[in-house]
UniProtKB/TrEMBL annotation, chain A:
Part of the ABC transporter complex UgpBAEC involved in sn-glycerol-3-phosphate (G3P) import. Probably responsible for the translocation of the substrate across the membrane. It comes from Maritalea porphyrae. Pfam families: BPD_transp_1. It comes from the Bacteria. PROSITE patterns: ABC_TM1 (PS50928). This is sn-glycerol-3-phosphate transport system permease protein UgpA. Residues 71-283 form the ABC transmembrane type-1 domain. The keyword Transport applies.
UniProtKB/TrEMBL annotation, chain B:
Residues 79-270 form the ABC transmembrane type-1 domain. PROSITE patterns: ABC_TM1. This is sn-glycerol-3-phosphate transport system permease protein UgpE. Keywords: Cell inner membrane, Cell membrane, Membrane, Transmembrane, Transmembrane helix, Transport. It comes from Maritalea porphyrae.
Length: 293, 283
């Protein structure tokens, strides 16, 4: 942590850490502690009086069907986004790893969606799937399939999953390709000499060898789907129809800023914080050590 | 390649081209929509090939105020706001992380580890989970509708601090010893030796943070009410809402195109730095 050779204590190090620490205290730790404090309060409908109620807000959430539904929905959403974008990226990286010349060109063409803001990704997909004008509903119409994500909750869910997964393919592809290119060629050659065909080599050699990356990406994708997809939901469905795409982050925003339920929103924030702490712990405890090989 | 399999090679390229096509499809549709007139964009089926109105739409979007009949800042102003915000976030994060990593690695002082853990905690408190109280703090400080309010609450960074800490730890101790013999003061050492040695890391991090800053959505949405402070990424959502009454898809999609161009350009033009930054910060 500390250099063996270092400077002695003076005022200088305090000045150097001051900006970071002040911002951390003012904009991170103070608001977070406020959220914890508010989660123990209930405000009356007019905001005139508040009452300290211990865990009542949490108890209410645990019994609230809408909240529990939203929880399950978020888990499903994250699993679907992670599965679709990771498997798509894995297949593409597996093929790109075989390409001798031009691998960089393919990489360039595949990584740029990373730079597209989630809300823009949402805008592009909602345009393609616009029920009256969009390209896809038009073609689906030929098969007699009626697409309207403003009315059909399952279709709305599918649309946000696709938009979120599309944006994340770039990231997953990049890490899978890097992991595959780091596998020593001698291992693959040994497999080939033993008579394993490419597909077999992929499943019995390459896929197990990139499993640390798979685990790392699972955590990263879960965090992404939980917290970074707000823009997509806000642009595409606004949580609707009938809450069918209200994931937890969207619900915190909606209950706090639109519904003005301060205690309830703060209690949800606290639960989300606990989730982030668990995910960060998993990431540092298990991923850090195993990704190196 | 291990062995020569001509058929598999063809399949490989076909699969990759198909993959690229699937990934690029939404952008193609957006681009096509931005090259047609308004009336054409109201008839299903929508065109799949570009039309001839690209420059007309471009000037209309860039200098006009987005959709006709809506009261919003001109698009060039929004682009400028986004640029300011992204640069302030990226530069601010790098600057404060560099100096705090320097302090933590090169100085022995009381509460050193306490500060380190405090910075670490920020990793666990993304803005999405503490929206309301953070908004209240910014409102109390009078920072609503300002570039400071847009950027400062976002510039504390555990990942950047960790990365610089890692970089500094790999710099041999002899550097500092010899600098000391030559009579360098701490800040001199920092400026003349550490900064030049971590130049590529700074550049890589800048690429990632610029994209991060440019793409901020929830935060600007909360703290800007003044149309002059709207960022380009935010404006898309407002346009989508307006589109339900008067759909001007050519303008909306042109705006979307303009909004994604700077970060996409950064990724493609500085691909090596981008990959380096991504793999170094997230692990």
């Amino acid at each position: 942590m500390l250099k063996r050779v270092h400077f002695n204590s003076s005022l200088l190090p305090y000045l150097l850490v001051a900006p970071q620490i002040i911002i951390t205290l003012v904009f991170f730790i103070w608001p977070a502690s406020q959220a914890v404090y508010q989660s123990f309060l209930i405000e009356d409908a007019f905001g005139l009086s508040t009452e300290f109620v211990w865990f009542e807000n949490f108890e209410y959430l645990m019994g609230d069907e809408i909240y529990l539904d939203s929880f399950v929905r978020t888990l499903f959403f994250s699993a679907a986004v992670a599965f679709i974008s990771m498997s798509f990226a894995l297949i593409l990286a597996g093929f790109a790893d075989r390409v001798v010349r031009g691998a960089t060109a393919y990489r360039t063409l595949l990584i740029w969606p990373y730079a597209v803001a989630p809300v823009l990704a949402g805008a592009l997909w909602v345009f393609m799937f616009n029920p009256t004008l969009g390209i896809f509903p038009y073609f689906l119409g030929f098969f007699g399939y009626d697409w309207n994500h403003y009315l059909n909750g399952n279709q709305a869910m599918l649309l946000v999953i696709l938009a979120a997964a599309w944006k994340q393919v770039a990231y997953n592809f990049l890490f899978y390709l890097a992991a595959m290119q780091a596998i020593p060629k001698s291992i693959i050659e040994a497999g080939a000499i033993d008579g394993a065909r490419p597909i077999r080599r992929f499943w019995t050699l390459i896929f197990p060898l990139v499993s640390p990356t798979t685990f790392f990406l699972l955590v990263i994708n879960a965090v992404y789907a939980f917290f970074d997809t707000f823009g997509i939901i806000h642009a595409v469905t606004q949580g609707g129809p009938a809450n069918s795409t209200t994931i937890l982050v969207y619900k915190v925003f909606n209950d706090g800023f639109v519904g003005l339920d301060l205690g309830g929103s703060a209690a949800q924030s606290v639960i989300l914080m606990l989730l982030v702490i668990v995910m960060t712990f998993i990431q540092f405890r298990y991923v850090e050590n195993k990704v190196e090989y | 390649m291990v062995e020569n399999r001509p058929i598999l090679n063809v399949v490989t390229h076909l699969v990759l081209i198909l993959g690229v096509a699937i990934v690029a499809l939404p952008i193609w549709i957006t681009f096509v929509a931005a090259t047609h007139e308004e009336t054409r964009m109201l008839q299903a089926p929508l065109p799949l090939l570009p039309g001839g109105y690209f420059f007309e739409n471009f000037t209309k979007t860039f200098f006009g105020s987005g959709l006709s009949g809506s009261e919003s800042a001109p698009v060039w102003r929004m682009l400028l706001n986004s640029m300011f915000m992204a640069l302030m976030i990226a530069i601010g994060k790098i600057a404060i992380s560099l100096i705090s990593a320097f302090a933590i690695v090169y100085f022995k002082f009381p509460f050193r580890m306490g500060f380190f853990w405090m910075i670490f905690i920020t990793l666990m408190l993304p803005v999405e989970v503490r929206i309301l109280p953070t908004f209240e703090v910014v409102a109390d400080l009078g920072l609503l509708n300002s570039y400071w309010g847009l950027s400062i609450p976002l510039i504390a960074s555990a990942t950047a601090t960790f990365m610089f800490r890692q970089v500094f730890l790999t710099i041999p101790d002899e550097m500092l010893e010899s600098a000391r013999i030559d009579g360098a003061k701490p800040l001199q050492f920092f400026w003349d030796i550490l900064i030049p040695l971590s130049r590529t890391n700074i550049a890589a991090l800048f690429v990632i943070l610029f994209i991060y800053g440019w793409n901020q959505y929830l935060w600007p949405l909360l703290i800007t009410t003044d149309t002059d402070m709207t960022t380009i990424v935010m404006s898309i959502k407002q346009m989508l809402e307006a589109a339900e009454q008067s759909p001007q898809w050519n303008i909306i999609m042109m705006t979307a195109l303009l909004a994604m161009l700077p970060p996409v350009f950064v990724v493609v033009a500085m691909q090596k730095l981008f990959v380096k930054g991504l793999t170094e910060t997230d692990k």
